Amino acid sequence: MNRFAYLRADDVGAAVRAVAADPSARFIAGGTNLVDLIKENVERPTRIVDITRLPLGEIGPGERGGLRIGALVKNSDLAYHPEVERRYPLLSRAILSGASAQLRNMASTGGNLMQRTRCSYFYDTTTPCNKREPGTGCAALGGFNRMHAILGASEQCIAVNPSDMSVALAALEAVVHVTGPEGDRAIAFAEFHRLPGDAPQLDTNLRQGELITAVELPALGFAEHHAYLKIRDRASYAFALVSVAAALELQGGTVTEARVALGGVAHKPWRDREAEALLVGRRVALEHFQRVADALLQGAVGRGANDFKIELARRAIVRALSHAARRTSRDDARR
Ligand SMILES: Cc1cc2nc3c(=O)[nH]c(=O)nc-3n(C[C@H](O)[C@H](O)[C@H](O)COP(=O)(O)OP(=O)(O)OC[C@H]3O[C@@H](n4cnc5c(N)ncnc54)[C@H](O)[C@@H]3O)c2cc1C
Ligand code: SF4
Fold first, then answer.
1. Are the beta carbons of 94 and 226 closer than 8 angstroms?
2. Would you say the CB of residue 121 lies under 6 angstroms from ligand 2?
3. Alpha helices of 21-79 — where are they, by DSSP H?
4. Could you give the residue ranges of the DSSP H alpha helices within 88-148?
């Protein structure tokens, strides 16, 4: 066990200062990911800053007619919040498809966005991994890569982002509010996570010491027409092989707005606005959904063991859009 200092922050400024001053310091919220990483010797923080006492645990109205979710709101509280169930059932469904009830009771909104990849080589400190130790190589490239990326990967890293919540937030076009040593800023969800490129050690565009304070949902929640489809090896307690958050606005059977975000296929939730635009102005029809799936997966590359994901993703997109096109009842959304 590596020794570390433990600090409990009483206000946001103190938490930010404590982490900004030390590149190997880490915030801790629910601890459901960070503690595992420390136990596996993947993360070796010198200082842990406990943020659980900060006043970031509320859900309230947002500035743009939506909802503002404090970074410390627990995943289960968020999924079952009446306004989230009523206005953003897509988010509720995505959260409830992840982890287990016990984990969701501990896990925080900010921590969920920041959870690290589940690539098994990342956790195995005896193997090369550019994300864990830049410059050592990527064991997954020639190794067991069944869970790995088919889109947006690089020769440095082919890991995927494991968060279900993030896939729904990408489709909903949420905004992440952060406070850092240089003040506050708001980050569009599409800009929050990164592709690996030649710096796979970075999962997000957060700067050193920046703390997520809230996630804001816009007014448009796609409550009538949405689907979260998660394909995985077990019916529960498993990460996505492929997941799809599909959201549609329809007027008289014609699509006026379409969003499709993919999980389990890239280093960040994957969207392609040009592909989504293919649906706008079209009647709901299987052939249009298939065109969107083809466009979204243009450029998809398998690495051997994960080749099957390309066809799996294609079918999952079509199925999720078909589900979304049918009116989604509140009872469906709760299931
Ligand atoms: C067995 C198992 C199965 C799981 N299955 C799924 C699944 O199917 N789908 C899914 O989506 N997730 C799954 N998870 C992951 C789980 O959702 C995450 O571990 C959890 O959301 C992390 O939240 P936390 O508050 O516990 O984060 P912590 O462990 O406290 O922190 C995680 C990281 O986030 C940083 N952090 C925390 N809060 C902030 C903040 N406010 N600002 C900046 N940085 C912050 C920490 O420094 C740390 O680096 C699973 C986890 C386990 C252990
Ligand atoms: S895919 Fe990424 S996380 Fe996995 S071994 Fe390669 S560099 Fe490490």
1. no
2. yes
3. 34-39, 75-79
4. 89-96, 101-106, 109-114, 120-123
Tokens of 303: 């690495």
Rounded to two decimals, what is the model's pTM?
0.97
Q: Are 293 and 317 in contact (CB under 8 A)?
A: yes
User: Residues with Cβ within 6 A of ligand 1?
Assistant: 26-34, 51, 71, 75, 98-99, 103, 106-108, 110-112, 114-115, 162-165, 211-212, 239
* Dist. CA 225 → ligand 2 center (Å): 36
First to last CA, the chain: 42
- Dist. CA 28–CA 113, nearest whole Å: 13
Q: Which two tokens stand for residue 94?
A: 């995505």
Rounded to an integer, what distance in angstroms lies between the CA atom of residue 27 and that of residue 45?
Answer: 10
Does 295 have pLDDT greater than 80? yes
Cα(290)–Cα(264) distance, integer angstroms: 20
Strands 242-251 and 254-263: antiparallel
233 C-alpha to ligand 2 centroid (Å): 21
Provide the mean pLDDT of the chain.
96
Q: What is the pLDDT of residue 237?
A: 87
**62 to 31, 59, 174, 192, 217: CA distances (angstroms):** 27, 9, 11, 19, 7
Residue closest via CA to ligand 2's atom 8 equals 129
User: Could you tell me if the CB of 130 is within 6 A of ligand 2?
Assistant: yes
Question: Roughly what angle, to the nearest 10 degrees, separates helices 286-296 and 308-325?
Answer: 140
Closest ligand 1 atom to Cα of 97: 8
The number of the ligand nearest the C-alpha atom of 232 reads: 1
Q: Report the separation in Å between the CA atom of 246 and the middle of ligand 2, taken as the mean of its atom positions.
A: 28
Coil, strand or helix at 251 = strand
| Residue 251 CA, ligand 2 centroid: distance in Å | 44
pLDDT in tens, 34-62: 999 999 999 999 999 999 999 999 999 99
301 sits in which H/E element:
none
